[in-house]
Amino acid sequence: MSLAKRIIPCLDVDEGRVVKGVQFVDIRDAGDPVEVAKRYDLQGADEITFLDIKATADNRGTMIHMVEDVASQVFIPLTVGGGIRCVEDVRTMLNAGADKVAINSAAIFNPAFVKEACDVFGSQCIVVAIDAKKVSAEGEDNKWEIFTHGGRKETGIDAVDWAKRMACLGAGELLVTSMDRDGTKVGFDIDLTRAISDNVSIPVIASGGVGELSHLAKGITEGHAEAVLAASIFHFGEHTVEEAKLAMQKEGIEVRL
Amino acid sequence: MDQKLVAVIDYGMGNLRSVSKAAEHVAPNNTRILVTHNPDDIAAADAVIFPGQGAAKACMTALQETGMIHPVQAAAKEKPFLGICMGLQVLMGHSDENKGVNCLDVIPGNVKHFEFEENSTLKTPHMGWNQIQQTQEHALWHKIPQDSRFYFVHSYYVQPDNQDYISGLTTHGTTFPSALSHNNLFAIQAHPEKSADHGLQLFKNFLQWNGQ
Asked: In this complex, is the C-beta atom of B54 within 8 Å of any C-beta atom belonging to chain A?
C-alpha cells in the first residue's frame, strides 16, 4: 500500500481547442477539451495537462474559459502551462479551476518569479517545466542544458543545477522534457530523467519521446520519475490510459486502477 | 422541501471553485452550495465545508483577517463539518510548519513534516493517488471501498493526541492519519474534489449526513 505512480496525458490547446489530432473512435468532437478530458478521466488518467501552444494575449481569454469548463466537469487534477509569466497569470488559472500551473521560460528570465509564486500560492501548485538537450559529446560525461523556444535557443544553464535551484526556490514538482527525444517515439532520455530525479527531493515527471507502452515503465523504474507524461500514444487511439497502467503494473509498478 | 444551505468557507486562499463545483455536481436539488466569507452565512448554514491550501501560517493569517476564526471553530462543534487538506491541518492545536504556528485547536494534536532517511527515494510533497485504509465505519465512507485511492498533495500530516479520532490511515514512508472524525466533524487530508468518483461519493455522503 503506497503512492501510485501517475500517468498524465498532455493536450496541446490553441484558441480553446485541442490541436495536434486527438482521435477517439467513439467521441463526437475530438477537439473539444471537455470531451477529451472526460474521456481520459474515464480511462483512468491520474491528471491532465493542458499546454497553451501559442500563449498569446489573445489566446488567454479562451484558455481561461476552457479551464473553467473542464474543471466544472472533470474532477481530477488539472495542470495548465504556456505563457504563465506573473503572479496574476497564476492566480487567474487557479481561480479558473486549474490545480497547478507549469512555469517554463518565465522561470529562466526571472527565477524570483518561481519563489514568489510558491510563496503566494504554495509549492503544491507550482510545476517548473524544464526543456533540456544533451550537450556532451559521445564518450564524455553526460551533460544537459536548458533550451527555450521549443529547443531552438540555448541558455547555457546546466539542467541538473537548474533543477536543484528550482527545487530550492520552492517548486512542488518538475516536468522534465528531453528536447532530443520529443516527438521521436524512441523513449524517454532515461539518463536525463534519473540525473534530475536523483538530485532533487521533489517529484519529477518524465516527458518527451514516448512511442510505446514499455517506454512509460522505464521512465519510472530506470528514470526514477514519479509520473510519466505522454501525448501521441493516447491521442491516436493506439493505447488507452488503462492499457498503459496495466503494462506498468506488469513491470511491478504500483498504479491506480 | 426545505432548502439545505451548505457554506464553503472562503478566506481568500485556495481553489474554492474546485470544491464548490464538485459539491454542486452531486448536490440534491434542494441543496444550495454557497461560497462565503460572511460569518452570518456560516452561522445560518446547515453544513459547512472548510477547504484549504497553502501554508499553515498564511492560512491562519487569512482566517484572522477575514474574521473567520470564531465562525469556523463554532461550526466545527455544531453542524456537519467537512475539513479538506489544510482545512484538516489547521483544526489541530499546533503545526510545525513555518517554524511553528498555533492553529484553531478544535482537535488537540500537532502537525508534522514528513521526515525520510537521507538515501530514501520517497518524495516530498506526498503528491498523487494513495490509498486510505478506513479504520472506523463512518457515514462519509458509505459506498467507498476499503483502501480506495484518493488524490493527495501535502508535505505535513496530522497527529491527534486522541487516537480515537482517526478514521483513515495512509502510508507514505510512515503511516499517518489521513482522515479524522469526531461527532459532527469529518476532516480528510486528501482532496475529494480531485479524487474522481470516490471523491464525488464522499461529497455526496457529506451532503446527506446529519452529523451523527
From this structure: yes
Q: Is the pLDDT of residue A27 over 70?
A: no
Span A137-158, mean pLDDT? 92
Q: How confident is the model at residue B79 (pLDDT cuts 50, 70, 90)?
A: very high
Closest Cα partner for A93 from A76, A111, A71, A108? Answer: A71
Contact A75 B126 (CB under 8 A): no
- Residue A88 gets which letter from DSSP? H
pLDDT at B30 over 90: yes
What pLDDT is attached to residue B2?
A: 78
pLDDT at A60: 83
Q: Has B198 been annotated as catalytic?
A: no
What are the residues whose beta carbons fall under 8 Å from the beta carbon of B66, sequence distance 6 or more? B10, B11, B12, B37
CATH superfamily of A6-250: Aldolase class I (3.20.20.70)
CB atoms within 10 A of CB B167: 23
Q: Is A12 a catalytic residue?
A: yes
Residues A192, A159 contacting (CB under 8 angstroms): yes
Q: Does A172 touch chain B (CB under 8 A)?
A: yes
Q: What percent of chain A has pLDDT over 70?
A: 96
List chain B residues with CB under 8 Å of A172.
125, 127, 153
- Candidates A36, A93, A39; CA nearest to B17 is A93
ipTM of the complex: 0.92
Give the cell for residue B54.
497553502
Could you tell me which chain B residue has the CA closest to the CA of A117? B54
3.40.50.880, 3.40.50.20, 3.40.50.2300, 1.10.10.10: which CATH number matches B4-208? 3.40.50.880
Of A14, A41, A89, A131, which residue is the catalytic one?
A: A131
Is residue B193 part of the annotated active site? The answer reads yes
Q: Indicate the pLDDT class of residue A157, thresholds 50, 70 and 90.
A: very high
